[in-house]
Write a structure and sequence with these properties.
184 residues; mainly alpha; 7 helices; rod-shaped
């Protein structure tokens, strides 16, 4: 009888050990699933946070666009006055009308590049305004490039009037400064 009781106790002990092991294995699997889900949620939150920061930065640029445009325009007005070029007569923002007028005139008369080169070379105010415009336009494009992951807005600005004018001013500025160095 004592052997029977021992075998019954041993059977219960083995069953209890097997049940405990199975419960431990199932708990470990559940913890692994929970860990993967938490990791996925964390990565998703990081992505959402990144997107929100990017949108926030893009919205900040949009909110401050008028100030940025006015700053660029303030540098363009003396340049166009020195070249005696009028802005476009459209309903666009004054910055885009001014840039459009300059580039329209350049399309009609390529001598505008030479006029700008001379103005940069001979007038320190024009040279400073061209340099300021180029720096601020490049800063705007760099800022858009870093804050907008898609690059759609940056590409639009580069392919539009801002990018074309930046290329135009850069060429004229380089011609004026290389001529200055050649004269020395």
């Amino acid at each position: 009888m004592s052997n029977t009781i021992l075998f019954i106790l041993l059977g219960f002990s083995v069953a209890f050990a097997i049940a405990t092991t199975i419960i431990g294995i199932l708990a470990h699997r559940r913890l692994g699933t929970i860990e993967r889900n938490i990791s996925y949620q964390y990565n998703l939150i990081v992505k959402i946070q990144s997107i929100l920061k990017s949108k926030s930065a893009t919205n900040a640029v949009a909110e401050h666009a008028e100030m940025i445009y006015q700053d660029l325009l303030q540098n363009l007005i003396p340049i166009l006055a020195a070249l005696d070029i009028m802005p476009r007569n459209t309903s666009e923002h004054p910055l885009w009308r001014t840039l459009g007028g300059l580039l329209d005139e350049y399309t009609k008369n390529p001598f505008v590049m030479e006029q700008l080169r001379r103005a940069i070379k001979l007038d320190a105010g024009v040279k400073r305004n061209v340099s300021n415009y180029m720096n601020r336009a490049e800063n705007l494009l760099d800022h858009l490039n870093t804050t907008e992951p898609d690059g759609i807005l940056t590409t639009t600005f580069i392919n539009g009037l801002l990018g074309q004018s930046l290329t135009f001013f850069t060429q004229a500025y380089q011609l004026a400064t290389t001529t200055d160095e050649g004269d020395k």
